[in-house]
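User: Just a sanity check before I run the rest of the batch. Below are the structure tokens for the first item. I only need the designed sequence back.
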């Protein structure tokens, strides 16, 4: 090979090429001296040496072996000897060899990657070794920094009781931080598999939440959900998991990363609060029902009275009692929204008829608005009639509540491909775009001057949204501040 090269390349060109090659030394295989025959400029620069002091001398006279890494496997002498004996190329991917800096008079930390290639002579024995060295200090530092920041992030996560995990979607390998084991109720040193974890999730939540979110996350790239899990001692706990899906260059999902937080305590608080609301509302219902009954009796008894004040007072009392009844029903419904407690009684019914009944009911409570309904021909949906009625009532009472007396409220019902859309529009105060998506959160109420005198608890739209989602439908709003609002929901039609 070298014979071919020198016959093709004149000696001076060969020298120029070698001088300009990155960190290279040409070493003679004259064990144990290993005489240096040539050095590239780059090699001289990284070792802070001069060509005259290097070329022609034994490698270990110039670079004493004891200065190199203590590990004999990667010391230069063992590498060169190995190349001569095995006749094979030998690489040392990374090793540390500190360099003396004459400016600071100190050694500075340096990392190198080196390879030793045999060059054979005419007798087919290893005659030379080509030793190439690359300074990889920057790469090593970057890697160390990445490892350090990763472990710091992990520490930070552990300090906030967050567990972290990483799932390889191709081979299903599952890596997790020790906190995850504790969150699932195991001793911290126990090794668990993804399968163990999955088996602990409540089966309903597995089906309705985990699998749905998983498929969704493959499309959207992220997920966030809460599920119930059972510890080995059969106690019930809640976890919240949040994370991202990483894709390869072909947009195929390859990894899922995330955090898990134990939210059992806050869930238990929430349940206690819901239980309290449910109990208090239940207790309030009985006296209220009897007040309502007495009011109705009085209204009947005084129907022929000439006294205007009595009529007005009874009408107002009736309106207030109805308001209170609706509120209490709302609170009772809210407490029923815990996972597993929300049951839909599906049946076929005509949505037009339900809208008409809802309008009649709201007209009965007394208001000063004009409600118009653009009905269509019979449209059968399969849903929980009472609950959908509750959504329509909420839209209607809000339309009245948040618009001026005498203004118009329009209800319409449209059929689109396989779906029915019900819309309630008003000419009222409207909602700013940035508030619109928040209206469906529990206890959310817009805060502004106009809202100050309008009472409410911000649970009606939350309940409506839960009901519509329970039917696999969609709920939404279109509005501009000061220009009225249109609330709508979409339901799949009966097959
Ligand atoms: P509540 O009316 O008891 O506050 P809801 O959950 O029914 O509770 O509504 C939440 C919030 O949405 C209301 O507080 C109000 O700010 C806003 N909102 C609802 N309907 C309308 C509407 N038709 N026009 C303007 N704002 C509305």
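Assistant: Here's the designed sequence for the first item:
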């Amino acid at each position: 090979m070298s014979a071919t090269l020198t016959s093709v390349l004149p000696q001076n060109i060969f020298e120029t090429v070698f001088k300009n090659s990155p960190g290279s030394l040409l070493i003679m295989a004259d064990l144990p001296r290993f005489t240096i025959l040539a050095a590239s400029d780059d090699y001289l620069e990284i070792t802070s040496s001069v060509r005259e002091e290097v070329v022609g001398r034994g490698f270990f006279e110039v670079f004493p072996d004891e200065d190199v890494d203590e590990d004999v496997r990667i010391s230069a002498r063992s590498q060169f000897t190995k190349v001569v004996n095995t006749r094979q190329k030998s690489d040392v991917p990374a090793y540390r060899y500190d360099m003396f800096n004459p400016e600071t008079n100190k050694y500075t930390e340096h990392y190198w990657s080196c390879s030793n290639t045999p060059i054979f002579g005419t007798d087919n024995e290893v005659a030379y070794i080509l030793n190439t060295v690359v300074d990889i200090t920057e790469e090593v530092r970057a890697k160390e920094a990445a490892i350090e920041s990763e472990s710091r992030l992990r520490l930070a996560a552990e300090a906030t009781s967050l567990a972290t995990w990483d799932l390889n979607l191709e081979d299903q390998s599952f890596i997790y931080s020790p906190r995850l084991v504790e969150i699932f109720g195991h001793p911290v040193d126990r090794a668990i598999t993804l399968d163990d974890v999955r088996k602990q999730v409540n089966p309903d939540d597995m089906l309705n939440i985990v699998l749905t979110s998983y498929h969704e996350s493959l499309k959207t790239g992220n997920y966030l959900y809460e599920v119930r899990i059972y510890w080995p001692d059969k106690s019930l706990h809640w976890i919240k998991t949040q994370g991202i899906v990483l894709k390869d260059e072909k947009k195929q999902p390859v990894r899922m990363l995330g955090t898990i937080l134990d939210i059992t305590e806050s869930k238990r608080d929430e349940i206690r609060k819901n239980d309290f609301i449910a109990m208090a509302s239940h207790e309030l219902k009985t006296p209220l029902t009897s007040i309502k009954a007495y009011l109705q009796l009085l209204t009947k008894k005084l129907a022929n009275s000439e006294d205007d004040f009595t009529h007005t007072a009874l009408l107002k009392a009736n309106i207030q009692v109805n308001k209170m009844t609706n509120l209490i029903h709302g609170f009772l419904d809210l407490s029923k929204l815990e996972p597993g407690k929300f049951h839909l009684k599906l049946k076929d019914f005509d949505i037009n008829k339900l809208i008409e009944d809802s309008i009649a009911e709201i007209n009965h409570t007394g208001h000063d608005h004009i409600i118009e309904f653009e009905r269509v021909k019979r449209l059968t949906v399969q849903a929980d009639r009472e609950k959908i009625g509750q959504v329509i009532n909420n839209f209607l009472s809000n339309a009245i509540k948040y618009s001026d007396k005498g203004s118009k409220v329009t209800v319409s019902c449209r059929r689109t491909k396989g779906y029915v859309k019900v819309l309630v529009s008003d000419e009222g105060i409207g909602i700013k775009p940035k508030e619109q998506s928040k209206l469906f959160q529990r206890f959310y109420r817009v805060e502004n001057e106009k809202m100050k005198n309008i009472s409410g608890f911000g649970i009606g739209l939350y309940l409506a949204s839960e009901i519509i989602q329970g039917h696999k439908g969609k709920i939404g709003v279109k509005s501009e501040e000061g220009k009225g609002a249109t609330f709508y929901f979409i339901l799949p039609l009966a097959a």
